[in-house]
Structure formats: C-alpha cells, structure tokens
Amino acid sequence: MRNITKRYGQVVACSSVDLALEAGRIHGVLGENGAGKSTLMKVLIGLAIPDAGQVLIAGRPVVIADPIAAAELGVGMVHQHFSLVEPLTVWENVALGGVGSLAPGEVRDRVGDRSRHYGIDIEPDAIVADLPAGLRQRVEIVKCLRRDPKIVVFDEPTSVLTPGESEQLFEALRRVVDEEGRAVALVSHKLDEILHATDDVTIMRQGAVVDRRPTAEADAAGLARAMVGRDVSLRSERVALGIVAGDEPVAESSETPAEPVLAIHDVIHRTPDGRALLSGLSLAVGPGEIVGVAGVEGNGQRALGDLLSSLLPVDSGHVRVDAADVPCGRAGAMQDAGIAVVPEDRHDSGVVLDMTVAENLFLADLARVARGGVIDGRRLREQAQALIDRFGISCQGPDAPLWPLSGGNQQRVVLARELAHDPKVLVAAQPTRGLDVGAIEYMSEQLQAAAAAGVAVLLISTELEEIMELSHRVAVISRGAIVGEMPRADVDLERLGLLMGGMAEATP
Amino acid sequence: MTDVAEEREVEIDTKRAARSQASARRAAIIEVVVLYAVCIAAALVLAAILVAATGGSWRDVFSALLDGSIRRPGRWGLTLGTALPLLLVALGTIVNARAGLVNIGQEGQLLIGAACATYVGVRLGGPGPVVIVALLLAGVLGGAVWAGIAGALRYWRGVPEVLSTLLLVTVAANAGGYGLKNPSLLLAPAAGRANRNQVSEQLADDTRLPRITVFGNEFPISVLLGIALAGAVAFVLARTVPGFRLRMLGRNPRTAQRAGVSATRYGMGAMLISGGFAGLAGAAMLAGGDFGNYQLVPGFSVNIGWTGLLVALVARERAVAAISVAFVFASLRTGSGFLAATGVERRITDVVQALLVLALLIPPAVIYIRSRRRALAASKDRV
C-alpha cells in the first residue's frame, strides 16, 4: 500500500501511509485508538475508498471497491466484531459467504478438515449461539481462510479472547504463515502480543506511520514511546483555544485524600461464559479530585461505567460512597447514593430517545416536579426550561422530542440532569466521543467546575490527551483492573504506554 | 469564522428551521390523513370484491352490517355491551405494551377471570352489590394470576413472555373445561341444566350487573366503568410518576434501570395489570348479559381476548383511541348477526375485520419508516 490518504470530513484518518505486507510474515500494525489502523485496513479490504494513494498486490496496482472485490483479489479479513448467524451451525455459517450451489457434506468435511489443519478444533455441526467467543472467532477464521486468501487481516483479534485462547490463536496464525506462505496483518494496540506474535511492526500515530522495524529489533519501551508519542499535540491546540489556562496541568492535590468519596474495592465480574470484565478492580476518588482512567479500549472501561450505573452486579468486591456500601446492580442504587453518570453510550443508558427533552431532564427525579405521584406539567416545563437555559441546550423547547437533537446537545441534556442532582460523584465515560471542538470544550469546563465544587470526578477515557489535560491523578486500566496510578505531575509517558499495553510488571 | 458571525448564522438557521418545521408539520398531517383514507378505501374495495365473488351484493352486506350494529332499534346498546370487554382487554394490552412486554394470552386470562368470577358469584352469598363487586374483583385476580405465571417465568427463569402467555391460553381452556366438568368447582347441579351440557349455575338476579336503558338501547353499567378506566389508564400513563417510569422501562430498559426502575418490579406489575384487565373483561362478560346467559359455558371467551389485542394494536397503544376502535370492532361483530338475510357467509366479517386491521396498521408503519429515513438523511447532512 503506497501513500494511502483517507479523510473523513476535515479529519485525516490516514495521511500518506505506506505499508508492505510480505508473504510468509506476520506484520503487526500498532497504534492507539484513532491512530488510523482500522481505516488503513478498511482501505485494504474495500470498506473505504482512499482519497489518494494506491494498493498494489503482487506488484500490480488494483482497485478495491468493496469486500467482494477484495475477496477476488485474495484479501480476507477477520473482524473484531463477529458477523455470524447465531442460530445456524458452524458449517452453515462458513458456507454462507459462498456463491453457487451448496454441497452440505463437502462443506462440513472441509470445515472439520481445515480446522484440524490449523489446530483450531471446532465441531462443524455445533450451533454458533452455543459457542463461547473464542470458538466463534475460530469460525470466523475458518470462514475467512476457506476462500484461500493470500492476504489475511486480523483486526484486534484478541480483544474478546482469554489469554489461553489468544495463545492458541497465535499458534494458528504462525501455521497459516509458515506452512502456507500467506501474508498476515495483525492490527493491535497490545504491546505484548505485537512483540510476541509478529515479524515486523509498523507503528501508527494520528494517521501517520511513526516507526517501522523488524519486531526482533523492537522493545516494549520503545514501542510504547512511539505509540503514545512524546508530544501531545492536541493539548497545545486546546491551550490555543483558551481552555487550559497555561502550560502547567492542574496538579495541586496529587495525594490520595484520606477520605475518598467513591471507593471501589476489588470488584470482580465475570460474564456467563467465564470472561472477567472486571478482575479485581480497586479505585478511590476523593472530593474535588479528577481521577482519569486511561487505557486502551476494551479493557473494562465499559464494565466500570456500567457498574457505577447500577447496570452490573458484581461477583465479589464492593462499591462505597462516603463509606456506605452501595448494592451493585440494584436499579437506581448508584444514583440514589449520589453517583451521577455521563455514560459512554448515551443512547444505551443515558437518554430515552422517544421522550421529550423535559422528560429526559427528569428521568430519575420526577418527585421534584410531581405532587402525590401526579406529574405537574407546568412545573416540569418550567424547571426543564431553567435547565435548558442554564446548560445552553439548543432545542425547540422542553416539549420537543429528544431524538433530533445533535450529539452535543443530547450530551448536555444528560449532563444537566446528572448535575441537577447535586451529586457526590460524577462519572464521565468517554464524555467527548463523537463531539465537535466546541462541545468538547464545554464538557471539559463542566467537569472542572464540578471538581472545583467538591464533587469527586471519575473520567474514563481512551483519549490520553483528555486525561492528561483534566486529571489530577491518572489510573491505568488494563484487562479489567487498575494496573497503575500516578499523580498527573509525575506521569511518565513511557511507563503509561507500557501499562496501557498490558505490561503491568513494568517498574517506573 | 468569528464567534459572533457563527452565532448569527446559527440564529438564522434556527429561525429557518422553525419555519420549515411548521410547514413540514402541516404536510405531515395531510400525509397521514391521505394515507389512512387510501388504506381504508383499499380494504373496503377488497372486501366488496370478496363479497361480490361469493355471490352477494356489497350494498346489501354493508347495509346489513349497519342495521345489525347501530341502525336497528336496540342494536347499538348491544354493540356497546360487546365493545366493553374488547376495550378492557385492549387497555391491559396497552399497559404491558408500554412497558415493552408482549402479552398475547388475554384470551386465556379472560377465561380464567370469568371462571373465578363465576365461582365467587355463584358461591358467595350476601347482598347483591357486594357479590357483584366481589365477582369482578375475583375476575381481576384470576386474570392477574394467570398473566403473573408468565411474568414470573419471564423474570425469574428468562422464558419469553410471548410464548408463555400464548401457551397458557391452551392451559386456561383446559382448566376451564375441567372446572365445568366438576360439580365441586363450576358445574351446575344436575337440576339446573340439561343433562349433557357442561355449564355453570346462572348468576342470581341480584348479582347481575344493572343494565341502563337509553332510547331503547340497553347496555350494562360496566360500559361506563370501561370508559372511566380508559381515561384512567391514559392519565396514569401520561401524567403520573409510575406511568412515566413504566414508559421509560418500555423505551429504554437500561436507562430505566439506572434511574431506579427495576425491570422485575415494574415489568411484573405491568403483567399483573394487563392480566387483571383481561380477567375483568371476563367477569364483566359473565355478569353483563351480552354474552350468554349469565353462566359460564364451554368456549365462553368467544375470541374476545384475541380481538381485544387487535383493538390495542390498531389504537396504537393509546387508551382513549381504544374506545372508538373497540366500538368499530364490536360493530363488525354485532352487525354480522344480520348477514344471514343477505345470503352471504357470516364469516365474511372476519375477513373484513382482518382487512381493516391491515389497513389501519399500514399507515403507522409507513410513517415510521419514512420518518426514520428522513432522520437518517438529516444525520447524513449534518456529517
């Protein structure tokens, strides 16, 4: 791939990226969320058309207009999110992608044969819905390899796997490469698996390639530094916008206060199929403190947000607010304890799209606008209007439906509601995702104002710049646990990168 | 661009948007009316063709339906009495649908309610009004328990309520049949019935619902109760805290959970209320006089539960709208009694009814799809 450039609006997702995949080698593509890895792979598989640059396969320039064209050219991809039909059997899923007539016996035999060949044993007649994530991925792999692609892309393949399953996956990958001479691209943000499983590595940051070398010559520290980057460029832009006062980050209260408002202790939660979403997570936030939870996406941030939204029961451990136990997973318990949440996905657990703006502003708090269980429509509208004015929500009025509002305005609705409770704790999960610069600025101001008013603020974000800019203390989450904490002033990017990459043993 | 200029532009945009929104709303209303008119006309034309195909005259059929449902003396009273249980079933369905649950077992819940009401009404002695209230409450309780079984399975064992409510209809039919075979339960003493009939004892005169006569049309007093209940359901859902929380649960269970609405508690409550309404419908049919002879007989529920579901569907989950829809559906039912004279198969009304349901369901679907598409287009414009 040469000189690939792809823009989305004004955002340059990839700028003049070169990438060479060689037969018989595993090429790692390393980078943070939003570094452009996925976009690059989308170009290769035909899901995105590049604005500039060209793709060459075996030296010939080709046009990859869609995934079907990609398949014809011998490019296959195993996606991070499975695209399987759950009620069907394994072999039926594999056969789905094919064209022409269907020979069930033959496909079934082939599936069994292929899976044994790669050492990834799957039963062709098993129903996909019954399989755990690890096995489902194997089905995806067999589905992909059945078309005999020359180039195979694996997008974050281990994000849903247990360490044991990841190990098996890499063995299978090695076999695909060594015995059949295919070229493999492994997209990942995990340092250890890049080091462990690849032959070459390309490191991307902010849409550009920052480094490229044989993996044998790379070490974890160097990769981490290259991935995270020394300069946090966005920060300087924000200083220019006048959001951050000056150079020095806000870091006066760097010590953990003696009396945390929010204390999460050793919380463990496992999914029914045994994956640990939270594996002994402990974290404390004091009054007036902003604690940033940094980490690569998919390491338990969502579960942590759900936990504090009363959406996740725990297997063990406890959550305390002002030293009082809060029952995890009971409807409304976290909110009643004074925990306000701006959720990661507001459509999922932040708003009710089909209700009005006013209703959304008082979802949990109708008692304030009701008398004897009957909602006082006028009071609801008045108070809603007050919140709309105070938080600058741009809408047609309190009775307007919520769904046509822009993302930034919906976010303001959530924030207005949550702050109107006078919370003790404010949890903001990926609060600026998908918002424009103005909305991001507003969000940051509000978080800082809340902290200044004595609220304990927990900022969960995959945007390192955001964490660095706002937090007094940075905690790193990896594989469902906090693996390291440091005051903002002492943040060492190299160590941060190592921790985020899952190298928990690293010492500062 | 400077901030001021940007702000001004936003302001202009907002005004423009408001104007275009007003005209868009007018266009939308016209669109809705036209859609409904076209769909209903299409259904009627199809029905007319069907009638013609079976050798009848559609004019005669239409006129007979009108005669049977409202025109002839006393008929609209009967239609009102028929509409009542339909309305009650629909009100319950609206409650569970708003909570995001699919209860389709009203036919069974209604039958169990009627059976419980029969038992209490026949066995409980005392002043008439007390017995009437008691038998209505017994109906509510019976229906609620029957729906509660499905609710309990849903919330404690994860069984989809769509299946369990539906399957419990069959169980209810058999349980009712068992009761009607057993003298210690519902079966009337041998003296009170023809030998081979499995029927219950009749309700005593003073335990029947009083009937009101207006312009020669007679209907049970429960019709007024039904209309009051429709108003109450509409009010509770729209204006009270519990109603609001129920709607929140139906629209977004995760947001609701976070805001303190327990799916188990509220969902279970919605199931019980829904079953209670169906049970009340059964009790009201028994004590009202428009369905049979104040006694429980095999096949007592006569599809009222199923038709009530359709009423809720067509009324699009709005309690007040359900009143008129229930009346229309009841009209088809009572009107069909006059079809024999036209020589057209009586069951043609079932077909007409089905066509009307389809006709009334198509516009909301079309509107939904269109608004989604518009929203999608709008969101693309924003990006």
| Greatest interface and its participating residue counts | A-B, 36 and 29 residues
Structural class of chain B: mainly alpha
**Intertermini distance of chain B:** 19 Å
Number of strands of chain A: 22
User: What would CATH call the homologous superfamily of the largest domain in chain A?
Assistant: P-loop containing nucleotide triphosphate hydrolases
Shape of chain B: globular
Report, as a whole number of angstroms, the end-to-end distance of chain A: 38 Å
The amount of helix of chain B comes to over 70%
Compute the number of helices of chain B.
Answer: 13
- Describe the largest sheet of chain A: 6 strands, mixed
Give me the side-by-side strand order of the main sheet of chain A: 6-7-8-3-9-10
Shape of chain A: globular
Task: Walk me through the structure.
- The complex is a heterodimer of chains A (508) and B (383).
- With 508 residues, chain A is α/β, with parallel strands linked by helices.
- In chain A, 34% of the residues lie in helices and 24% in strands.
- Chain A has 18 helices and 22 strands.
- In chain A, a hairpin with a 2-residue loop joins strand 14 (316-321) and strand 15 (324-326).
- In chain B, 74% of the residues lie in helices and 2% in strands.
- Chain B has 383 residues and is mostly helical.
- The longest helix of chain B has 51 residues, at 3-53.
- Chain B starts with a helix and ends with a helix.
- In chain B, strand 1 and strand 2 (217-220) form a beta hairpin.
- Chain B folds into two domains: 25-56 and 354-383; 65-343, ABC transporter involved in vitamin B12 uptake, BtuC, CATH 1.10.3470.
- The interface between A and B is medium-sized, with 36 and 29 residues.
Please outline what is shown here.
Chain A is α/β, with parallel strands linked by helices. Chain A has 18 helices and 22 strands. The longest helix of chain A is centred in the middle third of the chain and has 18 residues, at 163-180.
